[in-house]
């Protein structure tokens, strides 16, 4: 688990938290096997004297992908328990069965989970999602409050999406939204490359 407190250097996707609604408690989830998700990061920030948490995932030793309101302060030290994840692109097969991990609260308390938890999700048809920039899942199984910015990891072990939002539709359906990483791969790759070039000047 990578924890940071100061704001400095992180790759954020400003379009991730479009709805930014509370995602409630996680249903149908379970404790993750220790060190089974070495790419996961827990980011902690102080805003107006209050502590806020976000999930994120390691792209390399310098970049964590997360929601726009969370930032990384220093390089990660890579090890067998701290490793980057591969990002999906448009050449990868469409995902169906995925996992979301995080430390978001999983009950009615205000406390974050002390252990990494995960939930298995089945994605719904993109036409039913009604958002071409997102993957969607439906039902009580969903990310928890505090999990925004975490990865949607699918069958081939790649990160396909970023936990974005949750809402209840007008007909009562509970929907979770995950921003598609493939739609932003060019921007992500360019941002990381530009940062490396700047350091070498």
TrEMBL record:
Signal peptide residue numbers: 1-23
Keywords attached to this entry: Disulfide bond, Signal, Zymogen
Pfam families: Trypsin (PF00089)
Domain Peptidase S1: 26-193
MF terms (GO), sorted A to Z: serine-type endopeptidase activity
InterPro entries the UniProt entry points to: Peptidase_S1_PA, Peptidase_S1_PA_chymotrypsin, Trypsin_dom, TRYPSIN_HIS
Entries under CDD domains matching the protein: Tryp_SPc
SUPFAM superfamilies xrefs: Trypsin-like serine proteases
GO biological process, one term: proteolysis
UniProt key word Hydrolase: no
Coiled-coil zones: none
Protein name per the record: Peptidase S1 domain-containing protein
Organism: Sphaeramia orbicularis (orbiculate cardinalfish)
């Amino acid at each position: 688990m990578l924890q940071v407190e100061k704001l400095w250097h992180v790759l954020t996707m400003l379009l991730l938290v479009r709805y930014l609604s509370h995602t409630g408690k996680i249903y149908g989830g379970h404790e993750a096997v220790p060190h089974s998700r070495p790419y996961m990061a827990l980011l902690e920030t102080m805003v107006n004297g209050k502590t806020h948490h976000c999930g994120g995932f390691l792209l390399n030793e310098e970049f964590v992908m997360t929601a726009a309101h969370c930032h990384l302060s220093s390089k990660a030290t890579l090890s067998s328990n701290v490793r980057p994840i591969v990002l999906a692109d448009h050449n990868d097969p469409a995902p169906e069965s995925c996992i979301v991990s995080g430390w978001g609260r999983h009950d009615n308390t205000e406390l974050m989970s002390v252990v990494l938890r995960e939930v298995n999700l089945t994605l719904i048809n993109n036409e039913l999602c009604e958002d071409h920039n997102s993957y969607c899942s439906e039902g009580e199984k969903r990310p928890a409050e505090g999990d925004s910015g975490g990865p949607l990891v699918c069958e081939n072990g790649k990160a396909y999406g970023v936990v974005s939002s949750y809402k209840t539709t007008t007909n009562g359906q509970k929907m979770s939204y995950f921003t598609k990483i493939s739609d932003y791969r060019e921007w992500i790759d360019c941002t990381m490359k530009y940062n490396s070039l700047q350091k070498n000047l």
